[in-house]
Every structure is written in structure tokens, then in C-alpha cells.
Write a structure and sequence with these properties.
CATH topology of the largest domain: Rossmann fold
Radius of gyration: 19 Å
CATH class of the largest domain: Alpha Beta
Largest sheet: 5 strands, parallel
Number of domains: 2
Number of strands: 7
Number of helices: 12
Shape: globular
Structural class: alpha/beta
Strand content: 5-15%
Distance between the termini: 33 Å
Order of helices and strands: HHHHHEHEEHEHHEHEHHE
Mean pLDDT: 92
Strand order of the largest sheet: 3-7-6-4-5
CATH architecture of the largest domain: 3-Layer(aba) Sandwich
CATH superfamily of the largest domain: P-loop containing nucleotide triphosphate hydrolases
Helix content: 40-55%
Low-confidence stretches: none
Length: 256
């Protein structure tokens, strides 16, 4: 899901609370940046089983990583500087952009929901095309949960705006999932693509479709919501840690 080289992120070698041996162990397991360490922080205890005092050592590692990202006990003035680095992604509609305060913003997860056939996928596709046209050296990841991705749609949107269609589709990384477990694993590994392929935007069309199909009936609402919460937590962390946009769509139905 990504090349081995890193194009974004703070190298994990800057971590002073980790010995060289532990850094090598983390690198061997795909954690090469501070962002990746924070993204997979729930796995550190298993990846580093020989910590002398696990609770204290893990907390120190976590605090140092957050500090390097300016996410731990920093002056409010520095937080405002971080917020200024946010990226606004146009939806392609001036009216909708105005309602959203300038468009969809990085560091957050934006959701578009509605009934079947109301244009949710079209909005996601337009945001992606506009982003790739603006950021020529970036890629976008399209997670397709219902086989809704159509190259013809991308061509239509790009051509209408006079954009280079071939260049845009060459920078779309398409991932199709068929189960909720597969979707969750894709999201868990997504940081590798963001780091290795310089992704600026994650698009997930019909995120809840697998969960709705697999967790049937009201008695399954609680486990379904737990699974959904895990996926959304990872996507939120991804957006915040890497300053990228995450846009999802969901269909509204009358029964759970």
C-alpha cells in the first residue's frame, strides 16, 4: 500500500526516549515517523515487549511524540499557528464552500450523507479532482466500499473544468474493500500510503455499507457502532497527524 521511502512526516530517529535498537524494531514493523508511532500507539506495548517499566515508558514515548508534533502542553499561540497550516479543499460549488467556511478542511473528517442518488459520490469525486488539480505533486486515496468509482465520472468532472484528466487519474490510488474487516485493516495501514505516496486527501465512499450488511438487526447496533468508532478514530487521527483531508459519504436509510 505504499513505497518504502518516506515523503512526509518527522523521522522517528528524532525520538530521544527510544534507544537505537527499539527504533530499528519499530522501523522493521513499518513505523518510521513520529506520526506513524502515534497512529499505531495502541500497538507499541506488543511491538516493544522489553520495556523496563511499561506504563511509564510508554507514557514518556507518547508524550515526546506528541511534543514533537506540538500537540502536548504548548502555548495557545503555537496551536493557532498549526491551525493556520490547515488546507481548504473546494467542493466545486461556491455556495457549498461558503456554507462550509471555505470548503472541506484538513485535520478533520468531513461527512456527506443523504438518501440514495442525492449526489454524495459526485461531491466526493469533485473534491478529489479539484484537490489533485491544485496539488500537482500529491496523490489521493479513494476507498471504494460499494464499487461506485467510475473513471468516466472523473473524466467528466476534469474535462468540464479544463483539467488534465490523465494526470489526475494517474495520482488516484484506488482501494476496493469487500468486508468491514478488510476496510478496518486498510485504514490501519493507510498511513503507509500517506507517507510513501505523498497523499493529500482520503476519500471513502459509503463507509458504513459493509457494517450495515454484516451487522443486521437492532441487537447488533452496539457492536456495529464500536466497529464504526474504531474506523472513524483512525481516520480522524490520520487527518490530524498528517494535516490531510478525509472525506466520507454515507447513505441514510429508514431502518438500522
Amino acid at each position: 500500500m505504499g513505497k518504502s521511502e518516506i515523503s512526509v512526516g518527522i523521522p522517528i530517529d528524532k525520538m530521544k526516549s527510544l534507544s537505537k535498537d527499539k527504533i530499528e524494531v519499530l522501523k522493521e514493523n513499518g513505523i518510521k515517523t513520529v506520526e506513524a508511532l502515534l497512529y499505531r500507539s495502541d500497538e507499541l506495548e506488543d511491538l516493544l515487549p522489553d520495556l523496563s517499566e511499561k506504563t511509564r515508558d510508554l507514557m514518556n514515548i507518547h508524550i515526546e511524540a506528541l511534543s514533537l508534533k506540538k500537540m502536548w502542553m504548548v502555548p495557545a499561540s503555537e496551536i493557532s499557528e498549526v491551525e493556520k497550516s490547515q488546507i481548504a479543499f473546494t467542493t466545486g460549488s461556491k455556495a457549498l464552500d461558503q456554507l462550509l467556511g471555505g470548503g472541506v478542511h484538513s485535520m478533520y473528517v468531513a461527512e456527506f450523507y443523504g438518501e440514495f442518488g442525492t449526489g454524495k459520490s459526485q461531491i466526493l469525486n469533485t473534491i478529489m479532482v479539484e484537490a489533485l488539480n491544485k496539488f500537482k505533486d500529491k496523490t489521493a486515496v479513494y476507498i471504494d466500499c460499494e464499487k461506485t468509482y467510475r473513471e468516466s465520472r472523473i473524466s467528466e468532472i476534469a474535462s468540464k473544468r479544463g483539467y488534465d484528466f490523465k494526470d489526475i487519474i494517474s495520482r488516484i490510488i484506488l482501494i476496493r474493500t469487500v468486508t468491514s474487516a478488510e476496510l478496518e485493516e486498510v485504514v490501519r495501514r493507510l498511513y503507509l500510503t500517506v507517507e510513501g505516496r505523498n497523499s493529500i486527501l482520503i476519500v471513502c465512499d459509503s463507509l458504513i455499507s459493509h457494517l450495515r450488511a454484516e451487522y443486521l438487526g437492532r441487537e447488533m447496533l452496539q457492536p456495529r457502532q464500536h466497529a464504526l468508532a474504531r474506523i472513524l478514530k483512525k481516520l480522524k487521527d490520520l487527518a490530524s497527524l498528517y494535516n490531510i483531508g478525509v472525506v466520507i459519504s454515507n447513505q441514510v436509510v429508514s431502518v438500522p
